Amino acid sequence: MTEENVKSALSKVLYPGFTKDIVTFGFVNNIIIDANDVTFSVDITSSAPEVAKQISDDANQELKAIGAINVTCNIKAPKMPRESSSHGKNIAPQIKNFLMVSSGKGGVGKSTTSVNIAIALAAQGKKVGLLDADIYGPNIPRMMGIDDLKPEVNGNKVLPIKAYGIEVMSMGSLMEPGQSLIWRGAMIMKAIEQFLRDILWSELDVLVIDMPPGTGDAQLTLAQSVPVTVGLTVTTPQGVSLDDSRRSLDMFKKLNIPIAGIIENMSGFIAPDTGVEYDIFGKGTSQPMADEFKTKIIAEIPIEPSIRIGGDEGKPITFINPSSESAKRYMAAAASIWADIEEINANGGVDNAAVQPTTPPGVSACSTAAPKQAPKEKESCGTGGCGCH
Ligand SMILES: Nc1ncnc2c1ncn2[C@@H]1O[C@H](COP(=O)(O)OP(=O)(O)O)[C@@H](O)[C@H]1O
Ligand SMILES: [Mg+2]
User: Which residue, judged by its Cα, is nearest atom 1 of ligand 1?
Assistant: First the structure.
């Protein structure tokens, strides 16, 4: 057997998906022939294991057809790209990172923050999705200007709606306008899972998730379904809001979700006519809470009429008026969040394998004490404040 015979046999091996063979591509090298044993290398450009396997199988077949006995095909493929270094359960593995946006109560600007941070991340070159997981008050479609649009259905999957360069999905886009649903524990879990599994999200760098207010089934289900890379808490500066926000930060701690920081929203007021900043609800009052949870305030967003108007009219300030003070602060906050995400991944990522409790399908996960008899029909978990009553 000669090198020419081997090359001619290998030139019958097409590169998977192409009409050219691996010899013509110039991928074959280091051919060593020892009597009827052949060893060679193939340098390929794809990291997909199925490509390597097909080349190896086809090469074996062609070489054996010309009398080779032992064939050793060393495939040199680039390493799989580091999707995310996270571990544990992930029902949406094409999404590299998950950012959970939380608040202790409603009305503090959680959706406004989610929208503007998502747009800021996209402006910084990331491939971004925005999931409105606030099934009680899905406001994202209006804020993103897509409240008239219905998503396309592809087989049994739903395509996210595109707006401002971001992929968006919301219960509001799936329901009739003004319709309301009463959510029980098991339904919440199912909805969150479907948002991750049955929506055709692309390969995203990050999915920003606007959670319902509080700490309950939705938060727990999310943390069990995907490894949440970082959590962000939105608060307003008043003492009563801070009390609730503390619970949101404590939840991140209990779920082992790294905290990317706090956004103090409605922090001061910028008068549209003069541009002068006034202190209304207080300002910087969340600093002691940030210290307590070893995190930082990553933005103080003032009350600006254009933020409210942007929300109501579906024209987010960070997109429409990027030179405004608030847009600049959202951009800085997004850069800080991304730096945290990169650092977390460089240090081994997050692991949600230990997020407890894990419950059988259809059973509410909101009770932290494992029930002796899992409630099947009645999802109420018997603890207050979990959102499943
Ligand atoms: N910094 C801000 N300046 C002015 N209006 C704001 C600001 N943040 C939020 N809003 C407005 O306050 C209302 C509540 O905000 P929203 O994001 O819906 O809160 P949440 O999602 O926490 O319930 C919305 O009308 C929004 O446009
Ligand atoms: Mg909201």
Answer: 303
Evaluate whether residue 28 is within a structural domain: yes
pLDDT, one tens digit per residue, over 223-270 is 999 999 999 999 999 888 898 999 999 999 999 999 999 999 999 988
Are residues 220 and 104 part of one domain?
A: yes
Asked whether residue 187 falls in the same domain as residue 304, the answer is yes
pTM of the model as a whole: 0.74
Burial of 155-183, coded b for 16+ CB within 10 Å and e otherwise, reads eeebebbebbebbbbbbbbbeeeeeeeeb
Ligand 1 contact via 352 beta carbon (within 6 Å): no
The domain in which residue 187 lies consists of: 98-346
Specify the pLDDT at position 181.
Answer: 76
b/e burial code for range 48-64 (CB count within 10 A of at least 16 → b):
eeebbebbbebbbebbe
Say how many domains are in the chain.
2
* 338 and 305 within one domain: yes
- Give yes or no: residues 211 and 324 share one domain: yes
Q: Which atom of ligand 1 is nearest to the CA of 108?
A: 22
Q: Could you identify the atom of ligand 1 that is nearest to the CA of residue 326?
A: 1
What is the β-pairing status of strands 28-34 and 37-43?
Answer: antiparallel
Q: Does residue 85 belong to any structural domain of this protein?
A: no
pLDDT in tens, 134-169: 998 899 999 999 999 999 988 888 999 999 999 999
